[in-house]
């Protein structure tokens, strides 16, 4: 395909990135993420959601929050990225951080879906705030 001038799309890259994360190869996934950026792949909200989810599954909240600020600044803070961040933080009991994401959601005109509401309650329980 490449010889014919048809290269991989962002969907192709996202599929590979998701596969790496699903099998628990987070270090490889982050290396692949940097390769995507280096190659000039036009990453989208799905790309960001996949890598945010990887950070959160590794419980690397600091990296997830740093990337989250970049997501918001670049205009990729959509329902999918909001839910990825919010749900991941709630599942870890990081309710303060989840509330900050929720406030940004409201500020940008988004709202919680049913799954996010359930995860918020679960997060408060894990953090012993209920």
UniProtKB/TrEMBL annotation:
NCBIfam families: PPR. It comes from the Eukaryota. Keywords: Repeat. Pfam families: PPR, PPR_2. The keyword ATP-binding does not apply. InterPro entries: PPR_rpt, TPR-like_helical_dom_sf. Belongs to the PPR family. P subfamily. PPR repeats lie at residues 9-43, 78-112. Transmembrane segments: none annotated. This is Pentatricopeptide repeat-containing protein.
């Amino acid at each position: 395909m490449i010889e014919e001038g048809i290269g991989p799309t962002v969907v192709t890259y996202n599929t590979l990135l998701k596969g790496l994360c699903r099998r628990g190869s987070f270090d490889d996934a982050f290396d692949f993420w940097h390769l995507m950026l280096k190659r000039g792949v036009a990453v989208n909200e799905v790309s960001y959601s996949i890598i945010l989810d990887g950070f959160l599954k590794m419980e690397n909240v600091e990296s997830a929050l740093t990337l989250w600020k970049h997501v918001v600044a670049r205009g990729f803070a959509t329902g999918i990225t909001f839910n990825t961040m919010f749900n991941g933080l709630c599942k870890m009991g990081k309710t303060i951080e989840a509330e900050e994401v929720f406030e940004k959601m409201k500020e940008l005109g988004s709202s919680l879906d049913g799954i996010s509401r359930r995860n918020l309650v679960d997060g408060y329980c894990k953090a012993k705030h209920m």
